[in-house]
Amino acid sequence: MSVSEEIKRLHELHQAGALSDDEFAAAKARLLNGDLPGAGSGDISRLRRSRTDRWLGGVCGGLAQISGVESWIWRLLFVMFVITFGFGLAIYILLWIFVPEE
C-alpha cells in the first residue's frame, strides 16, 4: 500500500472518529518519516550482521536485532534446519556472504 493510500485510510479513520487528532497527527508523521506499516524495526533491508552478538558470522545476532527474537533461538532454528532438512547451513552461509556487517 502506498503512502498516499495509507494517509487516505488514516484520514477516513479520523473522520469516522476512530482516531483522535493527536493519534492522526502522530500516525501521519510516522508515515511521512518512512515508517510504513510492516517496515518497522523488522524491515529486512535493515538487516546487518552483528559485531557484538556473534558466534561465527553474526547472522543470528543481526536477525535477533531486527526481529526482536533472541539470537539463541535463531541459532537453534538454524541447527534444526541443518539436522532435519539439511539446508540451514547453506542459508546461513548465504546470509553470511550477502548481509553486510554493522
From TrEMBL:
<dbReference type="GO" id="GO:0005886">
    <property type="term" value="C:plasma membrane"/>
</dbReference>
<dbReference type="InterPro" id="IPR007168">
    <property type="entry name" value="Phageshock_PspC_N"/>
</dbReference>
<keyword id="KW-1133">Transmembrane helix</keyword>
<dbReference type="InterPro" id="IPR052027">
    <property type="entry name" value="PspC"/>
</dbReference>
<dbReference type="Pfam" id="PF09851">
    <property type="entry name" value="SHOCT"/>
</dbReference>
<keyword id="KW-0812">Transmembrane</keyword>
<keyword id="KW-0472">Membrane</keyword>
<feature type="domain" description="SHOCT">
    <location>
        <begin position="5"/>
        <end position="32"/>
    </location>
</feature>
<dbReference type="InterPro" id="IPR018649">
    <property type="entry name" value="SHOCT"/>
</dbReference>
<dbReference type="Pfam" id="PF04024">
    <property type="entry name" value="PspC"/>
</dbReference>
<feature type="domain" description="Phage shock protein PspC N-terminal">
    <location>
        <begin position="46"/>
        <end position="102"/>
    </location>
</feature>
<keyword id="KW-1003">Cell membrane</keyword>
<protein>
    <submittedName>
        <fullName>PspC domain-containing protein</fullName>
    </submittedName>
</protein>
<feature type="transmembrane region" description="Helical">
    <location>
        <begin position="76"/>
        <end position="99"/>
    </location>
</feature>
